[in-house]
Amino acid sequence: MTRTKLKEAALRLFGQKGYDGTALSEIAKEVGVKTPAIYAFFESKEDLFMTVFEESMSAYNEYIQAMAETSKGMSTEKKLHALLLRQYDFHRDKRELAVFAFRYLIFPPDFLQDRMHEAFGRFDTLLSSIIGEIMQEGLDRGELAVIPMETLVDSYLTLMDGLGMQYYYYKSPELFERKLKHAFEMFWRSVKA
C-alpha cells in the first residue's frame, strides 16, 4: 500500500516539478511517511523514478494492446484509426501517466538518459510488434499497398508520436480531433491498396 502511494506521489510530483525539482522529502510528506521510509521500498530517488517511468510506459503499452486484442474482425483501416483514438483516450483518461512519460521521453535527466533510452527501446519494440501484426494482417488481406513492413510501422509510429505531441498543443478537443482525423486520412490514403 505504501509502495503504491509512493509511486503515485512520485508520478505526480516528478511530472509537475521535474526530477531535479522533486525532493524525496516532498514525496514522503505527500504520502504521510518520513523520508527514510522510502528506502524500505526503493534503493534511491533514481530507483523510484525509473520504477515509475517503466510502469508508465508499461501502462501505455497495455492500454494500447487491449485495443489491439479487442479489434478482431475489424478492417485494417478501422484498427489503425482505433489505435490512434485509443492513444487519445490514454492522454485524456490517464493524464498523469501520459504527462510523466511524455515529459521524460523528450527531456530525460541527463544522467538517466542511457537507462531511459534502453527502457524505451524495450517498450518501443513491443509497440512496434503490435502495429506490425496489424500491418501484416492488412497486407495478407490485400488492404494495404505492398510496402516494406519497416516503412509501414515506422511511418505509423511517427504519426502516433506527432499526434501525441499535438494533443498538448491544442486545448480544444474539437480542433485536436479534426487534426487526428485529417492526419489519419492522409496516412491511410498513402498506404491503402
Automatic annotation (TrEMBL):
Pfam family membership, one: TetR_N
Top-level taxon of the source organism: Bacteria
The alphabetical list of record keywords is:
DNA-binding
Q: Which residues bind DNA?
A: 23-42
- Which InterPro entries did the record assign? Homeodomain-like_sf (IPR009057), HTH-type_Tx_Regulator (IPR050624), HTH_TetR (IPR001647), Tet_transcr_reg_TetR-rel_C_sf (IPR036271)
Q: Which residues form the HTH tetR-type domain?
A: 1-60
Spell out the molecular function terms from Gene Ontology: DNA binding
UniProt xrefs under SUPFAM superfamilies: Homeodomain-like (SSF46689), Tetracyclin repressor-like, C-terminal domain (SSF48498)
PROSITE patterns in alphabetical order = HTH_TETR_2
Protein name, entry field: TetR family transcriptional regulator
**Record organism:** Paenibacillus ihbetae
